[in-house]
Write a structure and sequence with these properties.
The complex is a heterodimer.
Chain A: H1 47-50, H2 65-76, H3 99-103, H4 121-138, E1 142-144, H5 150-167, E2 175-179, H6 185-192, E3 196-200, H7 210-213, E4 221-226, H8 239-248, E5 252-257, E6 276-279, E7 299-301, H9 321-357, E8 373-376, H10 386-395, E9 402-403, E10 412-415, H11 423-442, H12 444-448, H13 461-466, H14 473-476
Parallel strand pairs in A: 2-3, 2-4, 4-5, 5-6
Antiparallel strand pairs in A: 1-7, 6-7, 8-10, 9-10
Helix pairs in contact in A: 4-9, 5-6, 9-11
Chain B: H1 11-21, H2 51-64, E1 69-70, H3 84-89, H4 92-95, H5 107-124, E2 128-129, H6 136-151, E3 156-160, H7 165-178, E4 181-185, H8 188-193, E5 199-205, H9 219-225, E6 229-234, H10 245-248, E7 252-256, E8 272-276, E9 289-293, E10 299-303, H11 310-313, H12 326-364, E11 368-369, E12 380-385, H13 389-398, E13 401-402, E14 405-406, E15 412-415, H14 422-434
């Protein structure tokens, strides 16, 4: 990757244009009813109407089409994607994004979201197919596709949880239980949904402590949010007991689908007793993450929650249809035979890396993992932190794992390889991780200064936060 | 094994890997899952399709849809997409990247977000913008929550009944679960002036659901006097020519970036935007990119002000947004780069000319009256039908047009963008003229 320093504003030169628009047709107006163009847009005669038009200058770049193409191509070359190389970012499921999924979308581009049903039969069929397919895969009854991302799905799911209790006149249920290993979005979603959070602890073995859970249960509990396997990549094997305890106290079980990938083709959340769940189509169902979205976070529910499914209107139209189309193409390509392999192969890859590196990196929980696992830094750190390891990986052409999460360990390195990486790729990654461990012993300074081969070195994040420069104009002012 | 294109594992690979792990089979990797939860049935899914079959499946579905000449808006506008945009946004370095957590190999993403933030600030006139929201309606809902967070303990938000129906519906949803007292009214100034509300904020549209460009003269002062924040919901394309939120004195601007060249695509993905005055910067939800430098002085961009975000604040978070709509923000950024100030002005002029032409031609058919005579509009307008609306809509559909959306109050709206040609407008008018309605 080479360093490229321009911003589009710095390429601007007054008089250049990058658009191609037709001419206005006002002169051809036969009836004379069409108003002359000169009377438009702020040049109107009366002062009163003029007041609604913009007077402030519009500061946008003036660049030609080739300028734009080259600029963004240069920017893209400072980026790393799944197509560039191995991206073992834990809890993000950076699997290969199939290209056929991209190809099929544009033929639906012209559909207006409010078009009458009879004119969008094909689009509606995609939703019907996806509802059935996701129900089959998860064991839930029906899905809503309005949520635009995983956290948006969590929020929607919690709204459904509240509707269920409200419908029963059970208004005291205002607390939701969240394990200490949960994704940060869980408590945030609960807070946005007007629920108070109660934290349940994990045991030494990384699993939810059932004994700690019991006293938390009662008439104020709306439900529990579980990630299974959890963020340590461990299957919550007490799920049956947890489900019974929570249901017996009148609460519901929410399944955070961010970690659904290892269960794909193997275990269905509905069978484990979950009442409400979301899926991240941009994780488990292979749609590209786009540098931070668009995603899609459909929410599935068990039979007794179905009556509430259409209540929360959480986005503008029908959710991120373009993303749902891609996930649909993925399911068609996988088919019932290959869906069974996705989870097991992802699990195989994760366990393979774990077993291959556990002598050089500290493995706090040595049991079999699912799609991901967590190291707690180097076995012999020699002053080298997890951040140093992550940055050094960039020098070797790999994306770093998720770091400093989950919060249960101070030097967490969370690795998720997915099912679309070859043995050769995994071996190359393992070799590099071993090399870094060796470098940590021999030359820790090298790692403190990493990365060395990237377009920029470690930036000064403190200054960025203390004296924020958040737009271009600030530079010139 | 080895029979599916996305899985690289050969039988031999699997054997080697299982051996390293020390288990005998893939099933053994699930020994920690209680036996009863292992799914042993057959998934009710179709069998795997080849690539050609997948292609054909979607082609068949696409053929079941009817592509219409769009003369409707209501929050989704049929503007032209320059060819450059999908070309750039489908570059895999942008498309297949995650959120830019490792900034040293994500400068591409971080730089375009910085450019997007700058452009949103230009359009709105405000000081700070975030990296994006899901869509316009959710951005409005987040702005409502932000008003409450900024004014502490105050809990009433007044929303204009002139906001788009899907914006109001989303506001109602978020208000219901957040315990916010949402007051919907056409008489915003009057409701605020009464002074009886514990006012956190006021949300008004820049252009209302009838397409009328609203005047908010004096509103900001009034809202501020009552201790609240003013939020303006805007169409970013129109902001090139209509008075900006900053010019009206607004504290927060939100809206949907769809009008910046994003295809209709049956409602998504679109992208929400959100900007505010510097004073409220630390309450702004979502991600924000800032400029800094590396040790060698290279200009560098990073995610910043993250102390506001859920992965640190967890249960104290005022927003839970994590993934947003980054790639669609890139879409709009490339669009605005190509259009520049002149292109944006020209698009609006074309919309204005086309919509006024249609407006006057429709009135001339005698089948409508103008309930808002003298009020300025840009590309969308509402008429009072003097005919049967259902028949009107059907006649348009039969002729391949989508227009005459019926509002709650019984008006019909039409929208004309720069994509609509004079011939298309003339044939729509002909249909209206000739149909027995």
């Amino acid at each position: 990757m080479k360093y490229y320093d321009k911003l589009i504003f710095e390429l601007s030169k007054p008089g250049r244009i990058g658009y191609s628009l037709p001419d206005a047709f006002e002169a051809a107006c036969p009836s004379g009813a069409c108003r002359p163009r000169q009377a438009t847009l702020g040049l109107a005669a009366s002062k009163e109407t003029a007041a609604i038009w913009r007077e402030a200058p519009l500061d946008l770049p003036e660049v030609s089409e080739p300028d734009v193409v080259r600029h963004y191509t240069n920017l893209s070359q400072m980026n790393f994607g799944v197509d560039t190389g191995f991206y073992p970012l834990g809890s993000c499921t950076m699997k290969y994004n199939p290209k056929i999924n991209e190809e099929i979308v544009s033929q639906f581009n012209g559909l207006h979201p409010l078009q009458p049903e009879v004119t969008v039969k094909g689009a509606r069929e995609v939703y019907e197919f996806m509802d059935k397919a996701l129900a089959a895969i998860t064991g839930m009854k029906h899905f809503t596709f309005l949520p635009c991302a995983g956290a948006h799905g969590e929020l929607t799911g919690l709204m459904l949880m509240r509707e269920y209790h409200i419908s029963r006149g059970d208004l005291a249920r205002t607390k939701v239980i969240v394990p200490d290993s949960a994704h940060g979005t869980n408590p945030a979603s609960a807070a946005v949904c007007g629920l108070d959070i109660v934290v349940v602890k994990s045991k030494e073995n990384g699993l939810v402590d059932v004994e700690d859970l019991k006293p938390l249960l009662g008439p104020e509990i709306a439900g529990i949010m579980m990630t299974n396997p959890n963020t340590l990549g461990l299957f919550e094997r007490d799920i049956k007991e947890i489900a019974k305890l929570v249901h017996d106290c009148g609460g519901l079980l929410y399944y955070d689908g961010a970690n659904m990938n290892p269960l794909l083709g193997k275990v269905r959340p509905g069978d484990m007793g979950f009442d409400i769940m979301h899926l991240n189509l941009h994780k488990t169902f292979s749609t590209p993450h786009g540098g931070g979205g668009p995603g899609s976070g459909p929410v599935g529910v068990a039979e007794r929650i179905v009556p509430f499914l259409d209540i929360p209107k959480v986005s503008g139209f029908h959710g991120n249809f373009g993303v749902i189309l891609r996930a649909c193409a993925y399911i068609l390509s996988l088919g019932r035979e290959n869906v069974k392999l996705a989870g097991p192969l992802a699990t195989l890859s994760a366990n393979y890396i774990k077993e291959s590196l556990k002598d050089c990196y500290r493995l706090p929980i040595p049991t079999v993992c699912k799609h991901e696992f967590v190291f707690d830094g180097l076995a012999e750190p020699n002053g080298v932190s997890t951040l140093d390891v992550a940055k050094r990986l960039l020098d070797y052409g790999f994306h770093a794992p998720t770091i400093y999460f989950p919060l249960l360990f101070h030097q967490a390195i969370m690795i998720e390889p997915t099912e679309t990486e070859s043995l050769e790729t995994l071996d190359a990654f393992i070799d590099v991780m071993r090399t870094i461990a060796r470098e940590a012993a021999e030359d820790p300074e090298l790692l403190h200064g990493a990365p060395h081969n990237t377009p920029i070195g470690r930036p000064d994040e403190t200054t960025a936060a203390r004296q924020p420069i958040l737009k271009y104009s600030k530079i010139i002012n | 094994m080895g029979s599916f294109a996305y899985f690289p594992h050969t039988e031999e690979d699997i054997r080697v890997m299982l051996e390293r792990i020390g288990v005998k089979s893939l099933d053994d990797l699930y020994s920690d899952v209680p036996e009863e939860f292992i799914f042993k049935g057959e998934y009710e899914l179709p069998v795997a399709r080849s690539e050609e079959e997948v292609r054909a499946w979607f082609k068949a579905l696409a053929d079941k849809n009817t592509e219409l000449k769009v003369f409707a808006g209501a929050g989704a506008y049929d503007h032209y997409t320059p060819s450059v945009i999908p070309y750039i946004t489908s570059r895999s370095e942008f498309l297949t990247a995650y959120t830019p957590y490792q900034c040293e190999i994500s400068q591409g993403t971080l730089r375009y977000i910085f450019e997007w933030q700058t452009m949103i600030c230009s359009l709105t006139g405000l000081d700070v913008a975030n990296a994006s929201m899901y869509d316009g309606p959710t951005a409005a809902a987040e702005a409502m929550r932000m008003c409450v967070a900024c004014t502490r303990k105050r809990n009433t938000v007044v929303a204009s009944s002139g906001l788009l129906p899907n914006v109001l519906a989303t506001l109602r949803t978020y208000a219901r679960y957040s315990g916010i007292n949402l007051v919907e009214t056409w008489e915003v100034q009057e409701a605020v002036a009464e002074g009886t509300l514990d006012l956190a904020g006021v949300i008004v549209p820049s252009i209302n659901k009838y397409g009328i460009i609203e005047s908010h003269l004096g509103l900001a002062d009034l809202v501020h006097e009552m201790g609240g924040l003013l939020v303006e919901y805007c169409d970013p394309s129109a902001l090139a020519v209509v008075k900006s939120p900053a010019e009206w004195g607004a504290d927060i601007a939100v809206g949907d970036g769809q009008s910046l060249g994003i295809p209709l695509c049956y409602g998504g993905p679109y992208v929400g935007f959100m900007a505010c005055r510097e004073q409220w910067m630390r309450k702004l939800p979502g991600r924000i990119v800032g400029q800094t430098a590396d040790a060698e002085g290279h200009r560098a961009f990073v995610l910043t002000l993250q102390a506001r975000e859920q992965h640190i604040r967890r249960e104290k978070a005022t927003s839970n947004i994590c993934s947003n709509e980054s790639l669609m923000a890139l879409w709009c950024t490339v669009y605005l780069s190509l259009m520049g100030p002149e292109g944006m002005r020209k698009v609006n002029e074309l919309c204005y000319a086309g919509s006024h032409y249609l407006h006057d031609q429709l009135l001339a058919t005698g089948k409508f009256s103008d309930p808002f005579e003298g009020r300025e509009f840009l590309k969308e307008f509402a008429l009072q039908p003097l005919c049967d609306v259902k028949k009107l809509q059907q006649a348009l559909l039969d002729a391949g047009f989508f227009g005459a959306l019926e509002t709650e109050e019984g008006f019909v709206t039409f929208c004309v963008t720069e994509r609509r040609t004079r011939d298309e407008i003339d044939s729509l008018v002909k249909v209206v003229k000739e149909a027995a309605l």
